[in-house]
Structure formats: C-alpha cells, structure tokens
Sequence to fold (325 residues):
Amino acid sequence: MTNGEVAELAGVSSAAVSRYLNGGYLSEEKRQRIAAAIEETGYVPSANARILRTKKSDTVGVILTRADESAMSGVVSGIEKYFFASDYGTSIAYVGDDVKELSKTMRSLLERQIDGIILVSSAPIPGDMDLYLRARVPVMVVGQHVRDLCSVRFDNSGAAYDLASALGCTPESRVAYIDAAGRYRSFGADRRKGFLAGLERIGLNQEHISVRTAGFSVDDGYRTVSELLSKQADFDFISCATDTIAAGAIKAIRERFGSSFAARAPRVSGFGNDPILQATAGPIPTVSFDYEECGVKAAEIMVDQLKDRTVSSVSLVLGYRIVGA
Fold:
C-alpha cells in the first residue's frame, strides 16, 4: 500500500495524502475521506520515507551513563511520560562509564537523524562538541552544567551544605566524608565542596575531618569504609556522596560494631533518599531529589526547542529536601 493507492481510494491527490500525514492544511471534507481510506486499508506510512521527507524522526535519544537504579528510573520515567504526551518517542541506550562508547552512541544517533539527545549524568566528550553544534540538534544534559548546552540539574552543593549543617555535629565531632569517584562533577566536587563548607560553618576542627573516595557500588562503599575503620574507628559520622555508597558503609559498620549499632558506632548519612536503603537499613539523614520532575523538566525544554526549531542553552536548577536529620 502506497500514498498513491490511498489517494486513489479517497479520490484525492497524493500531495493531499502527504499533507494529511504531515499535519498540513486540508479541507475537512478531504481530511475525512483520507482518514476513512486509511482506516479501511490499514495503511501505515513508512517511517524511513517520512524521515527522509521531513528530516524529522519524532524521536529523542536518551543516553544513560551511570547505573543508579533509583535515580535513573525516576529521570527516565519523567522523560518518557512527557514525551508520550507530546507524541515523541525515545531511543534509550546505556553506555556506562565508557567514553568511547558514549561518543560512538551519540554519533550513531545523529546519523539516524534523531531529533534531539538527552544525556543523563554525564556530559558530551569535549572533542565531539563541534559535531553537535554543527548538526544543530538540541543536546540536553541532566545532572551537570555544560556551557553552550541546555541542562537540568539539582543544587548538589547547596544540598550538601544544608545536610552537613543538619547533622548535629559539634566543633569536636569526628567526621569522614566518602566522595564519589569518577568524572561526574555533580556527584563529586559539588557535593564534597558543599559538605565541607557546611562543616566549616559549624566550626568543626579540620583535623577531625577525613575524606576518602569510593566507586558508585555498594561493594565500593563497603571496601572503602572497612579500610577506613581498620585505621580509625572513632568517627561520629560517616557521610557518603550517594545512598548506594552509604549502603556499603552501613554494612561495614555493622560488621565491625554489630548489627545493633552500638552507641559508639558512627552514624551514616547519604545522598538521594533511595527507598530500598531506607527500607532495609532504616531511616538515615539524606537528601531527597524529585528525579521524575527532573526528567519531566528536561523533556519539556527539549520539546519546546524541537517545536521552535531552536538550539539554545537553557539552564535549570531544581531544589531538594533534607530528610531524616
């Protein structure tokens, strides 16, 4: 079945069928005849042909670059919810921390004439920036700020500052901060800087602060904190850059001090308000972000740019809540 055959059945021109399929102007009479012919024949227009004709796929690529189930599922849920309501599809790819795979995936999406790209938790490879700008395809970054690109992120530094201020530490408290390894600034430098600034405001003795770095997994957090406690165990607080790291920290503390968490055991704080951690380890001080709202806002900005045929650098910073402190 072709446009021409639908046109013949409806008694209109092929051009009229094309205008109908592409949302162009038609008289109501012709529109009804074409709709009836399509329903009668079950005609489905070729997506490839439409892309070649309109230079649009009505699809946005979403690239996930960090495995954090709670955060990622919330962001993706918000993105898909808004796109579905706006008649856009998504092409989702997970590339982990592989820089080469990220670059390869983005180039592949551009070659497929994807309408836009959303990067979750990472930033484009610097060497690829010229390619994106030349392609005039909107690129959205979720979780970080990147110059010349749209971004939606949380105020990680402010949240970490307020969390440190809410823990009830005194100038003589002993605190360890477990930083997040890797190239994700929002999960590393921003949170670390804000947390240490919060401790400084309290007047905490700098000699009583220890900073360590761990990967993103529970096992990474467990190994890092186990090693830390083997050298020094008199911490009042062990604060972690993510709830996943905090889960590993809690495991290490229970192993050393017992499952009952003796009075001398350090308390733990996290970042992200992961529901699984809260359910299994009990409430801990942490920061709650609305990840689904983040996804919705990212998709909303992307759709606005696609409809306006513009590529700009809108930057949106979302709020947070301190819970459990």
